[in-house]
Specification:
Elements lengths: L15 E5 L2 E4 L4 E4 L2 H4 L8 H13 L11 H12 L5 E7 L2 H18 L7 E5 L8 H6 L3 H4 L10 E3 L4 H4 L6 H19 L4 E7 L15 H11 L3 E5 L23 E4 L11 E6 H9 L14 H16 L2 H20 L5 E7 L2 E6 L15 H11 L2 E2 L1 E3 L10 E4 L7 H21 L4
Parallel strand pairs: 3-13, 5-6, 5-7, 7-8, 8-9
Antiparallel strand pairs: 1-2, 2-3, 4-10, 9-10, 11-12, 12-15, 14-15
Helix pairs in contact: 2-11, 3-11, 4-10, 8-9, 12-14, 13-14
The structure holds 4'-deoxy-4'-aminopyridoxal-5'-phosphate (PMP).
């Protein structure tokens, strides 16, 4: 893990001074291909003039107005844009400044909805192992990353975890996709019954798992089955698309491919593409009407809700993506990226899985392909891959060690939507070199 304190006595990170398309340039002039978009953020690359101009225009006109006094045109236009394209039933938007805040808002909206409905016993949240929903206390509590939660356990609200839809690790030998999905849906149902259906508020899941397990897409109609279980017991479905949403999978909302709509949907990262910090929780009409028709307001709030400059930047990001048909490029380049990685690594003794959707791709490393045994986390292979990649002018997002003892080291790739076929080849070549360098440095080769 890299330290993120500033004014640290010993500076270990290069100083980023400029951006140029898909590259970041440091103070020595060295260029890095941003093959992870930071953490799946920079979907337009780093120097989009249209977005820069939109920020300038808005800042000159009105940078910020507090939402207890005003709404603003960019906030309203962005909310319209998001809702017009959202899965059915999501009709309102609650803007925040980042991913964790979006998740906190979703948890509290779910809870307040049931309080307003007179079902105040509903307080339990069920999520999945090997998930990440943010680092603030509520989001951390529902996340299923044991390592991140461990030091803070006494401070976390109670949350419950079921198995993830992580085919590479969780699907049993000889188990069909149907049987696998049914087993997972049954596990959720059993958990709801065990807790008492009248006490369960919501089930929370990443549509495509991001940081904790590396771009793991759901199998078949897993989410249809999950939606049906939630509906049977009046449990809300919260989908976290903070990493996987806003076009990353080739669809504006990742759940479009699942054919279901959640009750609450969280987005961030690609929404503002890193040009401004912004996130949002999309809210169903049913939840909004119950809260607004009840006590009249959502008992929550932050200073920068609907920040005008952030909304103006995000709106322009979304216009650029639509007008330049970048989601088509995400689909095409994503296919190419996975195909190239699979070609390169088909015979690789230490690469167990290549997976993902669109330009959201994970590569999982294992010590033994047959048994899927992970490398010893003491080798810190993922940190070595990051170091070797940075030396070669490549940013990738490696995570792992053995989270819950159940996932190995992996590399997450999330390059900007503007990348070309040549860029994809460069990324794969540099990554292959970096992995070999890391295996040598760790003494595996
Ligand atoms: N949910 C998911 C799925 C994420 O990937 C992240 C960030 N990696 C978050 C929540 C938290 O977002 P933030 O870091 O902006 O608070």
């Amino acid at each position: 893990m890299t330290t993120v304190f500033h004014r640290a006595p010993k500076r270990t990170l290069p100083v980023a001074v400029a951006g140029d398309g898909i590259e970041i340039i440091d103070s020595t002039g060295k260029r890095y291909i941003d093959a992870s978009g930071g953490a799946a953020v920079s979907c337009l690359g780093h120097s989009n003039q249209r977005v820069i101009d939109a920020i300038k225009r808005q800042a000159q006109q009105l940078a910020y107005a507090h939402t207890s006094f005003f709404t603003t045109q960019p906030a309203e236009e962005l909310a319209d844009w998001l809702v017009e394209r959202a899965p059915q039933g999501l009709e309102h938007v609650y803007f925040v400044s980042g991913g964790s805040e979006a998740v906190e808002a979703a948890l509290k909206l779910a809870r307040q909805y049931f309080v307003e409905k007179g079902e105040s016993e509903r307080r339990h949240f069920i999520a999945r192992r090997q998930s990440y929903h943010g680092n603030t206390l509520g989001a951390l509590a529902i996340g299923g990353n044991a390592w991140r939660r461990e030091p803070f356990l006494p401070m976390l609200i109670e949350a419950h975890h079921v198995s993830p839809c992580y085919a590479y690790r969780e699907q049993r030998e000889g188990e069909s996709d149907d049987a696998f999905m049914q087993r997972l849906a049954d596990e959720l149902e059993s958990k709801i019954l065990e807790l008492g259906p009248q006490t369960v508020a919501a089930f929370v899941a990443e549509t495509v798992v991001g940081a904790t397990a590396g771009a793991v897409p759901p199998v078949g109609d897993y989410f249809r089955k999950i939606r049906a279980v939630c509906d049977k017991y009046g449990v809300l479905l919260i989908l976290d698309e903070i990493m996987s949403g806003m076009g990353r999978t080739g669809y504006l909302y990742a759940c479009e491919e699942e054919g279901i709509a959640p009750d609450l949907l969280t987005i961030a990262k690609g929404l503002g593409a890193g040009y401004q910090p912004i996130g949002a929780t999309l809210v169903s009409g049913k939840i909004y009407d119950t809260i607004v028709g009840g006590s009249g307001f959502f008992q929550h709030g932050h200073t920068y809700i609907g920040h005008a400059t952030a909304c103006a930047a995000a709106l322009e990001v979304q216009h650029v993506i639509a007008e330049e048909h970048l989601l088509d490029n995400v689909k095409a380049r994503g296919e190419q990226l996975r195909a190239r990685l699979r070609e390169h690594y088909a015979q690789h003794e230490f690469i167990g899985d290549v997976r993902g959707r669109g330009l959201f791709v994970g590569v999982e490393l294992v010590q033994d392909r047959a048994t899927k045994t992970s490398f010893d986390s003491k080798l810190a292979l993922n940190a070595a891959i990051k170091r070797e990649a940075m030396q070669r002018g490549l940013m990738v997002y490696p995570m792992g060690g053995t989270v819950d003892g159940a996932t190995g080291d992996h590399v997450l790739l999330a390059p900007p939507f503007i990348c070309t076929a040549g860029d994809i080849d460069n990324i794969v070549n540099r990554l292959t070199d970096a992995i070999e360098g890391a295996l040598r440095a760790a003494g595996v080769r």
